[in-house]
């Protein structure tokens, strides 16, 4: 009995439940209801951190794969549209492709770059707008499988698809706005330069010597003349550039309109060919029906069938002739529009070359204007320095300068007498 009593658990506390009954709690159970230990909390937090890190990495990889897939699909769409344009319009080189006319959608958030141009292929790279990674490329028309980007030779950013027209126009408008601002700044600088020149000339009138003033006036006059010539040349170059650019823009608009008309004419020509095929089938069917009616013609009923078949054949023959005339007319219209489109394409190329030449002349005129302006500013600076030095001279220096002037005058008089003798 004593040994069995030692194994009986000892209860140290009594708890009254909500039902009114008393329950005896074991000391170990009381300890287990105190809460989680610090070690358990740390382990739980560590497990949650590992799971969240794995989740973030997985989501990042999935997002990157989705971006790569989207870029690959865009590149395939560009390659398919470019190849279709070359076939439909009979282009001999990918350099003649109008990128803005490609029917590729969802390109407003993408940036396209072309490079590594050869006579047989070109590399097209695509990346998201404002980002450099990921980047995918395709070599058109040699290889239509996209891959990771490589370094390009002579890279050039292009706008692809009708939705990129707004980005191209925005870039052009931004460049025109910058040119206007530069022109306004040039006019303000020229006005300030003239005002400063007038102020310096008025300020230096009393402090410069006669010889210095004359030399300064001659140099300033020559420099101002050069500046005026450079300004006039710059304005002429700007006017010529604006004129050529305006003609180029108008021709590009006309070219696009003719391209749209060519597409419509192609559709009408295709429809006319389909109508001709249908008319030919109808004529063949009417002819067979007439032959069958002639073979089976017996009595009045057979003759009426033959007459009906002949009438049907005549109508089918007329429809066939009309379909052929429609095909010829649509073919002629398409040929004329294609010729007009080719002429406009050549005009665009010529105006593009003229625009490049005008841009070069404009750059040269700007450089000449900047050089002449710098010369005028240097002369004004020298005048200000001379004015400052003359103002700082003391009375003794003034006397010495007048003495030197008198000596120089005497020497000049003696020289004139000797020349007269």
Overview of the structural elements:
Strand 5 and strand 6 form a beta hairpin. By secondary structure, this protein is α+β, with helices and mostly antiparallel strands. The termini are far apart. It contains 7 helices and 7 strands. The protein is flat. The protein has a 5-stranded antiparallel β-sheet, covered by helices on one side. Strands 1-2 form a two-stranded antiparallel sheet.
CATH-scheme architecture of the largest domain: Orthogonal Bundle
Using the coordinates above, name the CATH class of the largest domain.
Answer: Mainly Alpha
Task: Give the structural class.
Answer: alpha+beta
- Give the count of helical stretches: 7
β-strand number: 7
CATH superfamily of the largest domain: Helix Hairpins
Largest sheet: 5 strands, antiparallel
Notable characteristics:
421 residues; alpha+beta; Helix Hairpins; 2 domains; 5-stranded antiparallel sheet; two-stranded antiparallel ribbon; flat; disordered N terminus; disordered C terminus
Task: Provide a short characterization of the protein structure.
The protein is of the alpha+beta class and 421 residues long. It has helices at 2-6, 27-32, 38-89, 165-204, 210-295, 299-392, 395-420, and strands at residues 13-16, 22-25, 110-115, 122-128, 135-140, 143-148, 156-158.
